[in-house]
Amino acid sequence: MDYTNPPAGADTPPSLQGARIVGGNDNHDGPGPAIMAADTLGGNEVYNFNNDKLGTIEHIMLDVGHGRIAYAVLARGGVLGIGEKLHAIPWSALTLDAERKCFVLDADKEKLKEADGFDKEHWPSFVDPDWAADQYANYGSAPYWQPRL
To answer: Cα–Cα distance between 21 and 75 in angstroms, integer?
Structure first.
């Protein structure tokens, strides 16, 4: 499966659109994979291109005022939520693999392990534009709130 190229006909740069979707079917018998309930994606595993498990999607955070997904919360490590490290992942940095029912993220497992994260008792302020822009830059994504060129 090619996770690095946008779908044929996609005219929006990958960094300015939502998560890419690969696999699945187009039978249109119900929702998914293009439109899905956010709670059905929570708990989905996240892998990198080497098929290393990076963690699971804990939450999908909404920018309520602008009607956009701000980021996904990736949870990794810990046991039963204790010692777990959370990471803010730009939605546009993720690829939904509809066949495998997981997400794929272009990230090195060891680099992610060493990356700044947060715990569930000390969430960062994503409304801080500098912190948020750094999170997007860490994953090679343009912030969703920047105007499209």
So the answer is: 21
In 3D space, the residue among 69, 80, 70, 83 whose CA is nearest the CA of residue 118 turns out to be: 83
* CA distances for 9 relative to 5, 12, 14, 71, 74, angstroms: 11, 9, 12, 25, 29
d(CA 78, CA 76): 7
Residue whose C-alpha is closest to residue 95's, from 40, 15, 31, 149: 15
- Tell me: the pLDDT tens digits for 8-61? 334 444 444 678 888 876 655 667 788 888 888 999 999 999 999 999 999 999
Residue where the block lists tokens 């993720």: 94
Contact 103, 36 (CB under 8 A): no
Higher pLDDT, 103 or 35: 103
Q: Is residue 21 within 8 Å of residue 98, measured between CB atoms?
A: yes
138's enclosing H/E stretch is helix 129-138
Report the alpha-carbon distance of residue 87 to residue 104 in Å, rounded: 15
